[in-house]
Design a protein that fits this description.
The structure is a homodimer of 437-residue chains. Chain A is of the alpha+beta class and 437 residues long. Chain A has a domain of 200 residues: Beta-lactamase, CATH 3.40.710. The first copy, chain A, is built from 15 helices and 17 strands. In chain A, α5 packs parallel to α10 and α5 packs across α13. At the A-B interface, β1 and α10 of A face β1 and α10 of B.
């Protein structure tokens, strides 16, 4: 089967299963599912058919997700990440009118699509494009606004991975040590024998089913333990992310291939806390929130033990997500201060093991890519790399074009393999377009 | 019985019942209960004996409350109140060393106490004193810090009452109308026949038991409905604050006397939303958070319907609470803008019905006071008035002394009648002291 056909088939399969499991409705397009028009949670109190709740799972059901992703805070206990007294870094604006009409060919497709049409195809909630540090494009759709705190899902992982890579570059964390050197509680789990580096790069051989559409998958059981998904009546499973992680078994060998398993990220959060004695929340605040001129106090979902959901709990504004991306693009430097060691940024940019990534087989849209320090690295001719979260959350950094894109989205399907075909070629096209200037 | 003896007896009674119901431990003093020393929630994960949880009620059990009140966010879903782009209003500092040694005689006592000793007697978590807009005194104790978001409990009510009084002064809310003119859903409740003014001043004759130490009291059932207190297994009561309010019955006549009932505040939140079509969260943000040079994005606890807990859900920093108080002291003006109409501030300062307040009988520490627009008004010779929350949360505004005090506290006893004897005379003494300058 040609690559184009593989991509189309994969996208269709994920799309169909995701559509079925996550909602019983016919798939509405972006316009028909516009949360600003559907009146979710309006009224005092909202009528039953407009109510979105955590307990009954409707907060995670499309099309309600188009509202809930921008209002995640009110479904979860959280800890604040204070921006402190640092002046807001205001991006200069140099908005361009020619981006909407830019065209590209979707992966696996043969007809061109405009940038503007891609926003709808991807159920974009908000998107900002920085070029040389200036905002050249910014849109807010649905109910997402500049002051919304959208759930970042697994974009959170790249913040945690950057913390870990920073600590490694600073000599405060040894990636070659065993996970159990830092977290002895994992001695009888599938993490036994794995190195910190393997956790950082997701090459551990743990038994962890990450199928979002399977209600009994490990990713769902993990979320339930952390109170990040509703628990069924009579739930007697582990209580807390850190209680779940030691129950994970082994499957395959460590270091053989890339396998995307969110449990690695929560283990990494545990490791960086143990390595430093400083909780993940405090590290996020100390290294990023209080130093990057953020405009908002962000928040992170916590479990009943006060453990932040390192794999996917960050809630932040679009421009604050862009500030983090821009700091990475600038080699970790921000207003003269080295926020992330240059060596840590370089280690992300260089990428990980492409062969081990290719062995995975689950990413037809990411041919030639690798995964390093919880970042996705394209190895394209612009050296682009991404932070990625389910349902289309993304930071896309194109160093050659001096471009950073931050996007929030509420695509009906969780897996980015469905969303990539109309995203990645659009970003690549914009990078080429801006690089000409 | 002389007033002094009544106060002492009342304080003892409340203290004893509160102590018994809210914790099974011998009452620890402020130093022995210092949460910074007790290691609550430290460790990844915290050991069982250091864990504080919502579900088992330990979050509300002294001495754990000394930690949880400063970390309320992680026990509750919340909505953010964004500070926006307004520059932070930095209070000039003119700290004085002579305040700690200031002495006063506690109500019902006969021996002088120092200001400094009163901090411990009141289990103070944080306190700031403004004089003529400058910080003359500021202390953070236990685990509370300048960036902590402490639960304000019923200080929240004064924010809501100030919104209502503002809308009334602006002609957008008519206090003489019936509650049911704005909220027809309350037609069959104890609120039927009451005016908005009676709700604002808590002179409604509703049947609502506000005894915090009784686990079946209406205030607890109200909190459970709003998910602001744990629900017992098999709970089948009302879901949401606005589902509970219509179930409240009648007891006595409307307008006869002041009776402190938190349900009035949540009804007032409902009324101001219906009167304007603007949710309480948005009004708090639009009128206060985005305009007072706040240093933090605050948060408010919400129920499963997205209704903010108007009676007691605000979580904010100490200095942000002081900014609100200072704006009131300045007649509603802030940096040249009229945030709250002068008439609304004047209506608070003037106070309410002293005779109706005295009929209540439950406030031996507040002889000669009244209640107006969800504020407590002293009618002393300095015209002082207060926002008050259980366990010692307070804003104390002394217009004559040009003084504003904001305090967070985690006293083991809920009722301020126990805390007032070592607070109110201290504030009065400081007001007299500063007024001499």
């Amino acid at each position: 089967m040609a690559r184009k056909a593989v991509i189309a088939a994969a996208a269709l399969a994920v799309s169909a299963s995701g559509g079925q499991a996550q909602n019983d409705q016919k798939r509405l397009d972006a316009e028909a599912s516009d949360p600003a028009k559907l009146g979710w949670m309006e009224g005092t109190p909202p009528p039953a058919d407009k109510l979105i709740r955590f307990e009954d799972g409707s907060y995670f059901s499309f099309p309600r997700t188009r509202w809930s992703f921008s209002n995640w805070r009110q479904f979860f206990p959280s800890q604040p990440l204070h921006r402190g007294a640092t002046p807001v870094h205001v991006f200069p604006r140099a908005e361009r009118q020619d981006i909407d009409m830019l065209t590209f060919t979707p992966l696996g497709g043969d007809k061109p699509m405009s940038w503007k049409d891609a926003l709808g195809a991807n159920y974009t909630d908000a998107i900002v494009v920085l070029h040389k540090g200036r905002i050249v494009y910014e849109r807010y759709l649905g109910v997402t606004r500049p002051d919304s705190q959208h759930i970042a899902f697994s974009v959170t992982k790249s913040f945690i991975g950057t913390l870990a890579a920073s600590l490694a570059a600073e000599g405060r964390l040894d990636p070659e040590k065993l996970v159990t050197d830092y977290v002895p509680e994992l001695a009888n789990s599938g993490f036994a024998g794995a190195t910190v580096r393997q956790v950082m790069d997701m090459t551990t051989g743990i038994a962890f089913d990450e199928t979002y559409t399977n209600p009994n998958a490990d990713i769902i059981r993990h979320a339930r333990a952390g109170r990040a998904a509703p628990r069924p009546a009579g739930y007697d499973g582990p209580d807390g992310f850190l209680a779940f992680l030691p129950t994970i078994g082994k499957q395959g060998e460590h270091g053989e291939r890339f396998t995307y398993r969110s449990a690695n990220s929560d283990t990494l959060g545990w490791i960086v806390t143990r390595a430093t004695g400083v909780p993940v929340r405090d590290q996020l605040e100390q290294r990023f929130w209080s130093r990057l001129g953020m405009e908002q106090d962000a928040a992170i979902v916590v479990d009943a033990q006060g453990t932040p959901f390192a794999a996917g709990g960050l809630m932040l504004s679009l421009r604050d997500m862009a500030r983090f991306g821009e700091m990475m693009r600038l080699g970790g430097k921000w207003h003269g201060a080295q926020i992330v060691p240059a060596a840590a940024v370089a280690d992300v940019v260089k990428g990980g093991d492409k062969a081990g990534f290719a062995k995975n087989g689950a990413y037809p849209t990411l041919s030639g890519w690798s995964y390093r320090n919880q970042w996705w690295v394209s190895h394209n001719d612009h050296g682009a790399y991404m932070a990625r979260g389910i349902h289309g959350q993304a930071i896309y950094i194109d160093p050659k074009a001096e471009m950073v894109i931050a996007r929030f989205s509420s695509h009906p399907v969780a897996g980015n393999v469905t969303i990539d075909p109309t995203s990645i070629p659009a970003y690549e096209a914009l990078g080429r377009f801006l690089a000409r200037d």
